[in-house]
Amino acid sequence: MLIKYIVLTSATMLVLAALFVALDGRHATAQQNTITIPMGPGRDGSQTGTAVLTEQGTQTIVAIDIQPAMGDQASHVHDGACPNVGTIRYPLNSVVNGRSTTTLNVELVNLQRTRLAINVHRGTDITQYTSCGNIPTVPGLQQMGRPNGLPRVGDYMTLSKIVAAMLIGVVVFVLGRRMSPS
After folding, report:
1. CATH number for the domain formed by residue range(s) 34-142
2. What is the rounded CA–CA span in Å between residue 81 and residue 125?
């Protein structure tokens, strides 16, 4: 009789865990991590606005919206921080009339590993910049468990649902033992 309840409990835990993970997987893929960065006046100009970084799988969409619009302007992700940025790390599509959207082949979390800044230049002159915004870093990111960055929100939800399934299985086992004839 004990083996019957152990098998029943194990099967219940397995089915519930699989169900929770499957449902969580559908939910987690719909989630997006987004960071809105204030773009302040640059060293050589006074354009302000925002840059929105949105994670889409292993890519990041960078959407810049600054004012006043100044025609066609080069933009990049640079090493370092405003106002003294370093070398170009990732080129971005030019900002045209104050707006630009670029898809980078890098996860958002990887953009937060080191100090980086988004820079919008005066026209195509990359020695002058009119707007700048710092991408926030995440302290201790190098020490996190996932080899390619922080666990996603869905990772924690999956773990909590598996634990919940295990607890339900234990309850089924205990109740089954109490209800069985001795």
Report:
1. 2.60.40
2. 19
SS3 of residue 44 by DSSP: coil
pLDDT tens-place string over residues 132-161: 999 998 865 544 444 444 455 554 555 566
pLDDT 10s digits, 164-178: 667 776 777 777 767
**CB-based contacts of 52-60 (< 8 A; 24+ apart in sequence):** 53/108, 53/111, 53/135, 54/108, 55/107, 55/108, 55/109, 56/32, 56/103, 58/105, 58/106, 58/107, 59/103, 59/104, 59/105, 59/106, 59/107, 60/103, 60/104, 60/106, 60/107, 60/108, 60/111
Residue showing tokens 């600054």: 66
Domain spans of the chain, in order of start: 2-31+152-179, 34-142
